[in-house]
Amino acid sequence: MRRPTLEAVAARAGVSRSTVSRVVNGQPTVTPDIRDVVMRAVDELGYVPNGAARNLVTQRTNSVALVVSEHPDRAFSDDPMFSTVIRAASLELETAGKQVVLLPAGSPESHARVEKYVAGGHVDGVMLVSGRGADPLPGALTRLRVPVVSYGRPAAPVAVPYVDGDNVGGAKQAVGHLLERGRRRIATIAGPLDMTAGQDRLTGYRETLRDSDRRSIIAVGDFTRESGAVAMRQLLADDPLLDAVFAANDLMAIGAMRALREAGRGVPDDVAVVGYDDVEAARYTDPPLTSVHSPHAEQAAAMVRLLLGLIQGDPAEPLVMPTRLVVRSSS
């Protein structure tokens, strides 16, 4: 059976081929009654628009790239942040009738492939996730004059609209909570300092302790469980009397709790622990982990809406979403 053509729809509806084309391409220059007649003919004939031909007319691919600037071993690890962002962005794009193209970009070679793919006109815009300070990709993509948005404030000095959580404010809530509980020697396990989330959460920690006339006690991890455990052992060696630790994400906090248990320190009796992100696992640690809730799914959906607006030519401003502390037994 032959596929119905645009001409067949026009003949059934009693209108011109160009009128049918305007209707199926969503152009607003057709009256509602004519649009209804055309759509009825489309339904009766089972006409399916030719996507490739329509893209030539609209200059749109209806596809958006989600570029994850991490090695696949980390991007597809047990860190729930990545899966949450990818799932939420995909659902928001599906609702908008768009296709997501996932592009890992954790190496110089993959950077080149991503840049070539985007330059080839295969996508209408790009969403960047997990960028680092030395990453040249944001600058390269903006020079291609393709709409680009970032999940998180970009670490590179490039003018890209972004959606982020209030990382400084969230860290201040965490450390302020520990001070309110009477903790006096509060350490932190900071995230990678070439990422803005790591920088901003460390800033919030430092500013809160400075305002309370307490000294900073800092170790640096890489947002993994193992780095949290290693950093916690280092902190205990540097200051055996510390009585609290704020970890810049929940995975590092979970690693820190393991190291504390191995060292014979009780949580929270000896050392209180607060994490960041409020992942599902935080509710099931022993004891359950106090954490700063960061709205990753909402941020990812907002990032999609920001990009779709840019594609349509709308102005875009950075969006910073609020965080909140979820208090559980670990503190």
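(ticket continues) Second input and output from the same batch:
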Amino acid sequence: MRLPPLNALRAFEAAARHNGYIAAAEELCVTRGAVSRHIKLLEEHLGVALFHRNHRGVDLTAAGRQLLPVLTEAFARIAREAEQISAMTRDVRIICPPALSIRWLLPRLEQFQAAHPDIRVRLTTEFYSAKGFDGTEYDLGVSVEHVPGRSAEIASMPLFPMVLAPACSPRLLSQQRLTSPAELARMVLLHETPQRRDWAYWLSHFGVQGVDASSGPTFPNLDMAARAAVMGSGVVMADLALCHEELRAGTLVLPFPEMTCVTPQGGYVMIGRRDRWDKPHLRAFRDWATSTCADLAPNLGA
């Protein structure tokens, strides 16, 4: 016997399970009329009525009651098998802001691909939209820890802290001979974003007076601001974890190494939908990400 149309079977199963067309239409993202047409097509195909129509809605006929559990189990089994198969091959869709992508994720991503050649990483390097992390578009994201209004349905995992301190090129420091934070008033302050929150927070945290936190050029992200600082263009508010390569190489130095502070935003975390958090391919990526962070945790007393 020729199989009935799949869409008609889905429409009947949903309508029977919900005991109505309206809820079935909402689940399937179609109109009530579309559900009705699919069910009529299925009844014509089978040559038997599946519902009794009445003023209260619909009730299953004997044939409908016989067919419903078969379809429910069949669709559930298809979903289970598809989930298991896709878990082995599904892409990891991840969103990560530009500076984090350039300075942490991208340089290490080849290691993950070598260890997991069956998992493809689809990286989007951009800032989050106003609505925040979109769990329908991305599997995982890298973000700051404290975000107002973040849904309880979003799980998170710590990566590494965000610790701030002023940094500049060694040549600029030797020329300017900064001996106290107040002397930053005569320096060019480099800002990682147009909002200029980085310098304002650090100066406020340490009670530094007389330094205009709104002065100096802005950049689209920390990577560009740090590169400008290496060139001697001014003093950047360095994220010690993301600038660790320059600090280790000596192309950036800290004029006030004892004056570091954590931010109100907290550290960096990996986030994702709680109902997908433990999918094998996503767990593999999360475990790998955690393993790459050991050398990024700055010494707060440095």
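Agent notes: Residues 298-302 have pLDDT under 50 and may be disordered. The two ends are 76 Å apart (CA to CA). Closing as not reproducible unless the customer responds.
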